Amino acid sequence: MHYDEEKLIAYFSDAPDDIDMSQLDMARIPRHISCIMDGNGRWATARGLARTEGHKAGIVSLREVITAAVRLGVDVLSAYAFSTENWNRPKHEVNVLMHLFAKTFIDELPLLKRENVRVVFLGDISALPARTREVFEYGLAECRDHTGMVLALAVNYGGRAEIVRAARQLAMLVKDGSLAPEDIDEATVANHLFTAGLPDPELVIRTSGELRVSNYLLWQIAYAEFYITDTYWPDFSRWDLVRAILAFQGRDRRFGGLSTPAR
Ligand code: IPE
Ligand code: IPE
Ligand code: MG
C-alpha cells in the first residue's frame, strides 16, 4: 500500500542502536501483519499491579502499532484481543476487558479517522455485552468509508468456531440448492470466514514468548511466518514491529517449493 515517506521518516527517527532503518525493504513490507497481543497480565503482575492494569497498558501499545503499521504502508493489521476461550477468565477481568474495548474504540475514533483506518471485527460480536456491541456497531459505521489500512480486531474469536460457522453456512447453501458440493474449493471456504476479502497474514507476531497459536486464524496462517518475542505486549513498541519485519524479510519463504534461485 501507499505510504508517506516524510511521515515514515518522522515516525521512525531515533532508532535504537540495533536497528538500521535503511535495511528495511519497503517493497517487501508484509501486506497483512497479525499480532497475538499476549502478556498483559504478567506485565502487570511483575509491577505489583492488577492484571487489568496490564490490559490498559496494552491499549497504548496497540495505538502505537496501528500508527506504525499505517506509516509503513501495511494493508491489513489484525490483532487478537479476546478469544472464545477467554470467557473462562474471572468475571471481573472479562467485564473490565469488555468495558475497555468499548471505551477504547470511542477514544480512538479520532485516530482511526485521521489515519483513514477501516475497522472490521473477526469473531461473533453479537454475543458481546449489549453496551460493547452497540459501541462496536456505532464505531464500525463511523469508519465504514475509510479507504486506508484495514484494522481487523479479533474479539470473541476462535479459529475452530470460525471454521464450524463456515461449514454451516456452506451446508445451508447446499441444502437450499444454491451451491453444489463439488464446487466447494479453498476460495469458497475462505469467503465464508470472518476474514473474507482480506489477504492471509504473512507475518504473525506473538508477544510474551508463548509458542502456541491459541486457536487463532487456524485456516489463514497456513503459510504465515512466525515471530515470537519475549517482550510483553504492553512493552511492545514501533521498534519491535520493525524488528519483526526485518526478521520476516530475512526468511526464505518456500511455500513447499524451492527457494529462488533454486539450490
Ligand atoms: C493478553 O494478555 C490479553 C488477553 C488475552 C485479553 P493476557 O491477559 O493473556 O496476559 P498473560 O498471558 O496472562 O500475561
Ligand atoms: C491468546 O492469549 C488470546 C489473546 C491474545 C486475545 P491467551 O493468553 O488467551 O492464550 P493462552 O491461554 O496462553 O493460550
Ligand atoms: Mg496470555
Bound molecules: 3-methylbut-3-enyl trihydrogen diphosphate, magnesium ion
Q: Indicate the percent of residues in helices.
A: 40-55%
Q: Uncertain runs with pLDDT below 50, 5 residues or more?
A: none
Classified in CATH, the superfamily of the domain at 30-158 and 202-249 is: Decaprenyl diphosphate synthase-like
Q: Strand sequence of the main sheet, in spatial order?
A: 3-4-2-1-5-6
State the separation between the terminal residues, measured CA to CA: 32 Å
How do the helices and strands follow one another from N- to C-terminus? HEHHEHHEHEHHEEH
In round numbers, the mean pLDDT is: 97
Please give the CATH class of the domain at 30-158 and 202-249.
Alpha Beta
User: How many helix segments?
Assistant: 9
Q: Proportion of β residues?
A: 5-15%
Number of strands: 6
Task: Classify the fold: give the CATH topology of the domain at 30-158 and 202-249.
Answer: Undecaprenyl pyrophosphate synthetase
Content-based structural category? alpha/beta
Main β-sheet: number of strands, strand sense, barrel status?
Answer: 6 strands, parallel
CATH architecture of the domain at 30-158 and 202-249: 3-Layer(aba) Sandwich
Written overview of the protein:
The chain has 263 residues and is of the alpha/beta class. It has a domain at 30-158 and 202-249: 3-Layer(aba) Sandwich (Undecaprenyl pyrophosphate synthetase). The protein has helices spanning 5-11, 40-46, 51-72, 91-107, 109-114, 130-143, 159-175, 186-190, 238-249; strands at 32-36, 76-83, 118-122, 150-157, 203-206, 225-228. It has a six-stranded parallel β-sheet, with helices on both faces. Helix 6 links the parallel strand 3 (118-122) and strand 4 (150-157). The longest helix is centred in the N-terminal third of the chain and has 22 residues, at 51-72. It starts with a helix and ends in a 14-residue tail after the last helix. Bound molecules: 3-methylbut-3-enyl trihydrogen diphosphate (2 copies) and magnesium ion. Residues 36-38, 80-83, 86, 210, 212, 214 line the site of one 3-methylbut-3-enyl trihydrogen diphosphate. One 3-methylbut-3-enyl trihydrogen diphosphate binds at residues 36-38, 80-83, 86, 210, 212, 214.
